[in-house]
Amino acid sequence: MTASARKIIHVDCDAFYASVEMRDHPEWRDIALAIGGRPETRGVIATCNYLARQYGIHSAMASATALRLCPQLLIVRPDMARYRAASQQIHAIYQAFTERIEPLSLDEAYLDVSGVTLCQGSATRMATAIRTRIREEVGITASAGIAPNKFLAKVASDWNKPDGQFVVRPQDVAAFVAALPVARFFGVGKVTAARLKALGIHHGADLAAADPLLLTQEFGRFGERLHQLAHGIDKREVEPERDRKSVSVEETYARDLPDLAACRAELPELLAQLKSRISRAGEPPLRALVVKVKFADFSQTTVEHAASTLMLDAFGRLLETGYARGQGRAVRLLGLGVRLGNSDARQLEFEWEED
Ligand SMILES: [Mg+2]
Questions:
Q1: What is the 3-state secondary structure (H, E, C) of 131-183?
Q2: Which of 146, 156, 247, 331 could make an S-S bridge to 166, C-beta 3.0–4.6 Å?
Q3: Is pLDDT larger for residue 18 or for residue 298?
């Protein structure tokens, strides 16, 4: 099957944790609500409802800051068990449409519905049907993007959020990508966006017209990839969990972590997130543990070690090695990952998951 013939749906629930809480607590539906940690323990906001967003509150913001912006904000602790239950219900709905499902988190997934004959084979109608069932059976809303590849499906799910969907048809890909701001491109963060703008590259059309050699000089292999994306090309497959080669989590910190002790203090939380992600992948056998450290100057390093069990101590030792490579630099991001399965694919670059 050619890449242009694929039909990919990206489904993304709206303000997921907050929506589940509002479903279960009707008295919270019309107030500013956030799910997160307590301000007095330096907690951060995980998710907030749309009313809270009107005050400028967003995920990863310190709870103390959120309360300053909106003093009447109600912050409740996350109840992961209920979110997981909702996630499983949603997953069962996906399975009625396709087996090719790649979850990105509890509330987000790619579905490859190429060749599926339901809804007269229309991916747009399938997305509508999936969203209707999520609303009726789970009691929350979801948005969807429909496109010939993962990159565009994910961008599109954000287009009519919340409770909406957007389709990028194969014949519309070129125009859609041309008008897309570079910050929307897969893998482009603030720093890369700023560097692209400094080169006079603001939209997909500029990227597509840019000299591929220049992009490679500036950004290495990622430059090549950007050039492909700008031409609407993204060959990444929707990878069902059973085929996964790795699982990872990472966190960018609002304030850089100044030393090794501060980094170590973050490990238990990251490990808890990693464990829940591995359990969602069906507890596959582990082959190696991986730690990523990104420093304040954006340089980064990865350390890995063969292991078949998840041990905090082992991650701690890898962190120590990685941290030492920074020669005392502060740390802006930490990642923990595992390689899965028994096949020997160690030479492959470890692919970190995006959040
Ligand atoms: Mg979401």
A1: HHHHHHHHCCCEEEEEECCHHHHHHHHCCCCCCCEEECCHHHHHHHHHCCEHH
A2: 156
A3: 18
Cα separation, 222 vs 171, in Å, equals: 26
Tell me if 107 is assigned to a ligand binding site. Answer: yes
Residue 1: partners with Cβ closer than 8 Å, 6 or more residues away? 114, 115
Please state whether beta strands 165-167 and 142-147 pair in parallel, antiparallel, or not at all (unpaired).
Answer: parallel
Structural domains counted in the chain? 4
List, as own/partner pairs, every contact residues 222-227 make where C-beta atoms lie below 8 angstroms and the sequence separation is at least 24, other chains included.
222/187, 222/192, 225/187, 226/185, 226/187, 226/188
pLDDT digits 0-9 by tens, 21-56: 999 999 999 999 999 988 888 888 999 999 999 999
Verify that 139 and 7 share a domain, yes or no. yes
Span from the CA of 209 to the centroid of ligand 1 (angstroms): 33
Domain for residue 354, yes or no?
A: no
Counting every residue written for the chain, the total comes to: 355
Quick check: is 354 catalytic?
no
Q: Containing H/E element for 293?
A: strand 286-295
Question: Which pLDDT tens digit goes with each residue over 57-104?
Answer: 998 899 999 999 999 999 999 998 899 899 989 999 999 999 999 988
Global pTM? 0.74
> Is 12 labelled a binding residue?
yes
**Domain presence at residue 317:** yes
Domain boundary among 120, 137, 171: 171
Range of the domain at 90: 3-14+81-171
Selected catalytic residue, list 21, 102, 108, 304: 108
Is cis: bond before 26, omega within 30 of 0? no
Distance (angstroms) between ligand 1 centre and the Cα of 165 equals 13
Amino acid 3: pLDDT? 46
Comparing 286 with 355, which gets the higher pLDDT? Answer: 286
Band (pLDDT 50/70/90 cuts) for residue 155 is very high
Whether the CB-CB separation of 146 and 138 falls below 8 Å is answered with no
Closest C-alpha among 90, 43, 101, 50 to residue 67: 43
Do residue 9 and residue 29 come from a single domain? no
